[in-house]
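User: Mind token order:
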Amino acid sequence: MTAEPDGPEDRLRRFATIWSRAVFPVTSTSSTRPEFEAQLLPQARRLSEALVARTFDPEAGRAVGAALVNVHCTDPEALSRTLDCVDAYLVLYCGGDGDQEDLRARCARLQHAMAAGFARALRERTLAEQEAIAQAALQAQGVVAQALHASEARFRAVFEGAAIGIGMADLEGNMLQVNGALLRMFGVSEQTLRSRNVREWTHPDDAPQTWRLYDELVRGEREHYHLEKAFYRPDGTVLWTNLTVSLLRDADGEPQYQLALMEDTTERRLLNLRLRYEATHDALTGLPNRTFFFERLEKALGAGEGQRFGLCYLDLDGFKTINDSLGHAAGDRLLVEVADRLQSCATAPGEMVARLGGDEFVALTTGPDTQRGVDELAGRIMNALLAPISVDGRELTVRGSIGIVEGPAGERSPAEVLRSADITMYRAKSAGGNRFELADPEADARAITRHGLTTALPTALERGEFFIEYQPLVHLGDGSVRGAEALVRWLHPQHGVLGPDRFIPLAEHTGLIVPLGRWVLEQSVRQAREWQELQGGAEAVGPLRINVNLSPCQLTHPGLVQDTVDILERAGVEPDALCLEVTESALIGADDDLLKPLRRLAEMGVDIALDDFGTGYSNLANLRRLPVSILKLDRSFTQSMQQFPADPVDLKIVEGIVSLAHSLDLAVTVEGVETGAQADQLRILGCDTAQGWYYARPGPPERLHELALVDATG
């Protein structure tokens, strides 16, 4: 047993040795194998460095592929053996301790680049040979009068010994001479090949200009032309060639013969097609991938006037649950089955299905009438997902949400279309899933605005774009100002002042609500301290209290209690000057762990208010276990009191809630008071405090202090 190489250089040399042993037998070189290995060592080092480079660049692969041609590795088998060797040993010997999955991906891309570099270099070398042969033929024609026998011998040597196919024909297309390489390429005898006329060699894949160029050449209007052309062999297989046809003139300059030079590119073309397929198709499902789909979408959007497109963007509902519970292997089998069903839905001309990644698929339809067609396509997709899918003996029900975008070609870019489809798909998912929705420009604009606000939130707090307005809390008995609720606002550079309904849900979704809420609490408590200092001797009804809202995310944050204590102590404010408002919906079904921080704060003297009471369908008996001291009655119960007479049912409900609250030693605050009659009715019903536009709109802290001074001085 041989010892493993010790260092990176030893492993690199071992890789070069394996490579040289694999390729040397099919290399046309006069070098010995050790000399050939020495030529491959720099190329092995170049591949190794590219594999582990911090920034990956496939250019090294193309350079190595070209270098193979320079060291006479021109046989296609040499490329095949090289790619096999790189695939099997490059990561093993040169990958080090890097991420194996990333290294394998880099290795695959290097192989693709090597194949491309090899093909390009081989083509350039062949073209050079072709040019040399053509020049030799022309030179042979030019000196035929002076040294006919000598030039004929030289031409015959080039003609017969060339590795590419050569054929000469007259201007009517009758074959006059062919070399052995051409006979081997077609797999026929010389007699058979010479019996064919050039014009018989048509193929369905001929480029439109192929025979136009030929006609121009035999008429003497051009000297040569070059293109890629396919030919049928007698056995029905296709021979692909790089074809160069030159015109040979006589001593007087009149067209006389045509000379064709053919390079067999069949294997290279098949390799390129395979690489192209792998680059444009999903490895798991075989569907076109994101790259291929964007090519087709860009082509559809660039179609002429009168053409339209329709796009269905599908995301499976609950796929993550299947992956998490059954494993990724089961999830992959599910995706394969879904892909097969989707493929069967898009069989009409102009339709295609692609996988963008994960459990996201797209279906595209094009043509003059996609308004009806895209709806039908979405319906077929939804129906295809109805039947359960069997995976590992389990019958799995699969549902999906689809966003549909349809419109005329030429108005939007592929990125804009896909963004609209993505937004629409999430709108369908938010509506419960298992449905499709049509794109709505207004909904797209709102979603884009929400995204913009979401991304701007973190820096907005750092730049000080938030500010707080205060709405007074008034005692219904004597009309005195007892405090205020802190309401945060966002002074956005583009959108102006935004209310909390525009950004608080976004802050909760991103987690920014915790630092934002801490900032609001700190600013509000500091303001409460300033009010106390400004009150001076006018404290007959006690210090002004500040009410601050807590979101559900803040309730579960482990630092809530300590942050509150630290803020109160730094500001020098007693706990009873602070009231934390928690929505009723956040406490429905709350367990003891969630209530524990609120109980600790309540034990310290902080008031806890149950906000929006009456909207959460909570059990009234549940109030006894909640550490609350105030109920904030939702405005929906008191809106009818703005008119006279008030709805008797609402009066009874409010009266019952107030009675229940007082029996539990809870104070009652009412929101949304907008008229004097409403305030009087609520006072008669026994409500304790109120807030609303009847007293004052939210405003700067100075206004609240002025209102409090007016109340204190009478």
About this structure: Residues 523 and 694 are 26 Å apart (CA to CA). The mean pLDDT is 84. The longest strand covers residues 238-249.
